Amino acid sequence: MLSKQSFQAVTTMFRQVSGIQLSDAKQALVAGRLQKLAQARGLQDVDAYVDLLMREGDAQEMVKVVDKLTTNETYFFREPQHFDHLRRVLAERRAGTAGDFRVWSAASSSGEEAYSIAMVLGEHFGLKGWQVVGTDLSTSVVDTARRGLYPIERARLTPTPLLKRWCLKGQGDNLGKLMVAAELRQLVRFECANLTRTLPEIGQFDLIFLRNVLIYFDNPGKADIVKRVLTRLKPTGLLFTGHAESIANLGIPAVAVAPAVYRHA
Questions:
Q1: How far apart are CA 4 and CA 7, in angstroms?
Q2: Catalytic positions, please?
Q3: pTM exceeds cut of 0.85
């Protein structure tokens, strides 16, 4: 069981670290995700684990909690309309010098979005003239993204030619999985970043994908994140948000050019 007091202590800590406020409706979810961490510390009671967490203030243990509470459900080519728009953008642009065209997957989770973008760029540019950077709050999903190994069902929306060109089918212990080809992985890099804090030095981007993360924040929190992210968007660049997300009423200097696609005002 997770008492209301322990739930509030954990969610307060989680908001301080991530900026995300978990509602009371998430109490059962939080209890379930913390149970394994409690057992790993030799505790059967989640309340006892939370008490230990708050007393010790162990930074590494806090990271584990954040990893557990960060939602990371994703798959390749999620919201395919955006990838159609990406292809239209690329159709107007020729491949340039190495590192010329840069895309940021700002809440990349376990990497499927970043690799989906990379497949489209690879289809257009080949293996030069571009780079994808993926960032996420969770250290564990960043590690997963770097490996590039996934259950094959996450590729259910991936166009077959791209799947054949850029992915390897798992065998033996990896049966039922796919591995993103090494030649593509080398053009995609991942690192940890908290979008509610000072951003790492990752440069400027032609396109930024900030999808399905704003839904976890109130309007001031959304505005703060979008303004910070836009500082990394080139003057002629485009910002992609989730189709269920809107920045229209946040006082952001951005103009919609397509559904959930924006440019600097």
A1: 5
A2: 33, 136
A3: yes
